[in-house]
Amino acid sequence: MRAEVVVDDSRRLGDEGFISGCWGTLAEQLDEAYYDDRSDADDDLEKGRIKFPQDKLYGRDTELELLRGLYNDIIQERSSSSAAAQVVFLGGYSGVGKSAMVADLVRQLSEDDKSVVCTWGKYSKLQSAAAPFSATSDALGHLVLELTKDKHAHHLESIREKLCNDETRMAMTSTFPSVAPLFKTFDPANSSDPATVATSMNEVKEAFTDFINCICKCLECPLIWFLDDLQWSDETSLDLLKDVLSNIDLDNMLFIGAYRCNEVNDEHPFHQLMDQIDKARTTNATRIELFGLSPDDIGEFISDTLSKDDPSEVTTLTEVVFKKTLGNIFFVQQALEELVRKNA
Questions:
Q1: SS3 7
Q2: Strand pairing category for 85-91 and 253-259
Q3: Is 117:146 a contact under the CB 8 Å cutoff?
């Protein structure tokens, strides 16, 4: 069932949220804040549900082109036998579309080259303090699942041949047990009980750097390593990232670290990390900040969502939604969902 936004003149009553074509109330977004969902409707999945476009990213062509360019730069630099890696720090408010843009980058690259390898992790405000390396551990887990697929059998064989250092194996498997299958000496019966625990953070950092370098060099395409919500990363994670990303010998990786710029001031530990990486990597570190989409982009999104032939058909709705959401795509979606529920 395709949801439609309809008008009910009997419910207008001077409501500022009323416009031709729909009725509802939108909470104005003066800052990031949150969308004020005041619907008293039930959550029936079959009632009042609106379908948003899934295979189209709006208003990010410039940023996507930049990321694709950095990815291709790595490939070109590797062809000249020089170490090639790019570090990108991606800032923006919550809901502005940072992770969606990275996902679309991977989708585009996958259409061009089926061998794209991407892994990801996301920090949590509650989990980070209790579980150091949480997002890094998640990313490593996803990487192992990817590299142990049949299509990467030749990569896995090469990785296991090169990961022969016992100290690296013991430090990595004791800190990140999920990586054990990437080592030749992996024994499934003992995978949850590492034999040796790393004695210091320095051992972990050295082992991790060797581990990542080995994997990246064994891959035919750059590894895309995406960590989200770095404003909540723990101190040990930042310490680890500083060593890895500052390493000028890091090869064949596109690292993308996303964070909420409104939660990271100059004194924030992650901001200091970015400054340190900028100094260490000079030309191979890039900062991108995403802002809310333009009214034209929002109009195109609403037009596609409502299956209209042209954005001009939803001009008034676009103006109201943009004013209330400031172009934040997440709030735009919530606003449209709320309007549909009000009319369901």
A1: coil
A2: parallel
A3: yes
Can you tell me the distance from the alpha carbon of 257 to that of 97, in angstroms, rounded to the nearest whole number? 14
Neighbours of 16 (CB within 10 A): 10
The model's confidence at residue 165, banded by pLDDT at 50, 70 and 90, is confident
| Paired strand residues for 18 | none
For 291-318, how does the pLDDT look when each residue is reduced to its tens digit (9 = 90+)?
Answer: 999 999 999 999 999 999 999 999 999 9
Residue type, 233: S
**Which string of b and e fits 277-289 if b means at least 16 CB within 10 Å?**
beeebeebbbebe
Top-confidence range, 14-28, 189-203, 289-303: 289-303
Q: Treating both helix axes as pointing N-terminal to C-terminal, what angle do 295-305 and 315-325 enclose, rounded to 10 degrees?
A: 120
HSE value, Cβ hemisphere, 13 Å, CA-based, for 299: 13
- The pLDDT value recorded for residue 48 is 55
What does the pLDDT look like over 324-340, one tens digit per residue?
999 999 999 999 998 88
Which residues sit opposite 255 in a β-bridge?
Answer: 87, 225
Beta bridge partners of 288: 90
Q: Mean pLDDT of all residues in the chain? A: 84
Neighbour count for residue 290 (Cβ, 10 Å): 21
Element (H, E) at 117: strand 117-122
Burial class (CB in 10 A: 0-12, 13-18, 19+), 173: buried
Task: State residue 257 phi and psi, 5-degree precision.
Answer: -115, 115
Side chain identity at residue 330, one-letter code? F
| Rounded distance between C-alpha atoms, residue 281 and residue 44, angstroms | 51
Residue 115 phi, psi (nearest 5): -95, 15
